Amino acid sequence: MGDGAAYVAPAMDVDPAPHIRTLYGRRQGKKLRAHQQALLDDLLPRLRVPVTHSLDPADHKSPLDLAALFGRVMPGGIWLEVGFGAGEHLAWQAEQRRDVGLIGCEPYINGVAKALAHLERLAVDNVRIHDNDARFVMAALPPRSLTRAFVLFPDPWPKARHHKRRFVCRENLDRLATLMVGGAELRLATDDPSYLPWMVEHACLHPAFEWLAERPGDWRTRPEDWPPTRYERKMLAGHTPTFLRLRRR
Questions:
Q1: Are 76 and 99 in contact (CB under 8 A)?
Q2: Alpha helices (runs of H) in 195-240, residue ranges in sequence order
Q3: Which helix H or strand E contains 129, and what residues bound it?
Q4: With the C-alpha atoms ordered 126, 17, 20, 163, is the resulting torsion angle positive or negative?
Q5: DSSP label at 9?
Q6: Over the stretch 117-175, which tens digit does the pLDDT of each residue have?
Q7: Which residues participate in catalysis according to the annotation?
């Protein structure tokens, strides 16, 4: 750990507010290295999305001013990634599409530190970070402000009693539908065989979204602009991930 003040994470599975159900597990893992702690102390405050910790849009004084957040109007639009893990996909997209403003949400502090390292190495300035529940950002975003959204390999919460904690659900999809412009793309991915039918039922059959698959290969094959991450190479060995692309009607 560096000389800066240590980051103190909330205890595992403690809700951000008593009435809000968490959709994620632990907030922090192993001890951070000095440079990782420095990034959290110095870079994260400059990139952090300023939002109230509330799921009710009415609790936010006004919708996020996205031009002010990024310091300019982003001609390619605004993309949201929910649960970016170690940030490899987020950073790759930011480097490839510097005309796009990307908002990445991730409550796991070790992942946030790794993402910040990627952003620093690539010297990209079109990413903003929310190091907490993505639903707080979703509540603060203005309607029809997103041109793309990603929910890649979310925690499947495989036990039946935990299914209510899955991010892909009608409530969150309804909110995303409100936030996405017509024609915007929603990308989902999972390698969990129990989560795939759940995603199909909740997302692909949602009235606001059109599933773009025309044949099995469309959801078994990774799109060219969807790079694999180190997590996928390491953790998904022997698994068959599924890639779902949907369009906002």
A1: yes
A2: 195-199, 216-220, 230-235
A3: strand 127-130
A4: positive
A5: P
A6: 999 999 999 999 999 999 999 999 999 999 999 999 999 989 999 899 999 999 999 99
A7: 155
Angstrom distance (rounded) from CA 48 to CA 45: 5
Distance CA 200, CA 189 (A): 11
pLDDT over 90 (residue 221): no
Work out whether strand 146-152 and strand 78-82 pair parallel, antiparallel, or are unpaired: parallel
What is the rounded end-to-end Cα distance, in angstroms, of the chain?
Answer: 48
Distance (Å) of CA 188 to CA 136, 191, 195, 211: 20, 11, 11, 11
Domains of the chain, start order: 74-248 (3.40.50.150)
Residues facing 103 on adjacent strands: 80, 128
Residue 62 contacts by C-beta under 8 Å, 6 or more apart in sequence?
Answer: none
For residue 40, count other CB atoms closer than 10 A to its CB. Answer: 22
Whole-number Å distance between alpha carbons of 195 and 144: 28
In tens, the pLDDT along 44-94 reads 999 999 999 999 999 998 999 999 999 999 999 999 999 999 999 999 999
Question: What is the greatest pairwise CA distance in the chain?
Answer: 55
Give the residue from 239, 157, 238 showing the smallest Cα distance to 198: 157
Cβ–Cβ under 8 Å, residues 228 and 196: no
Residues 6+ apart with CB under 8 A from 178: 143, 144
